[in-house]
Specification:
single chain; 184 residues; mainly beta; four-stranded antiparallel β-sheet; 1 helix; 48% strand
Length: 184
Amino acid sequence: MKLHQLLLAFFTLLFGTLVTKGQISKVNTVVDSSVRVFDDFKYKLRLHVFNTEASDETQPNAILTLKYMGNFEDKIFLKDSLYCMKPWIQFKDFNQDGENDIVIFNTSSARSNWTHYLYIVDKKKHKLIQVAGFSKLSNPDIIKESGLITSFSVFGNTVVHSYYKITKNYTLVKASKDYEETIN
């Protein structure tokens, strides 16, 4: 058999396993996102979502890896397993040190209560520090003038507003009582 005939047979077999009676079967999709960190091309943060069809947020479906790619060997500084509904990496300065931190999408509820993981970027030590409990905040944002982290959750016709701060040792602490409002 010639090479082109072998390739044709392979793709026919592959395509035949994906299509059943004219319908494409679901296949777990693997998605990778990579970004450079610390303004250094040798440090790479990779979010590898190995099952985009996963819906149980208590079961990890992604791996976050911070890797230094040296001249002779690579070194892994961070490796976390997490649940990631969509492979979104964003940058925002949540600890008000002038450096953008890494925000990774976690999940969304039916009322668009989005949650995220937060990793503080320490450029001097070339470290990422995960802020414990941050993934419990819905729709987090930062008020730059006060340094307060806002969170709001929508439940039926009620919106709950909460406010937090990140301490110097990267602990998330509540900054005030929750405020509730009713929407029509």
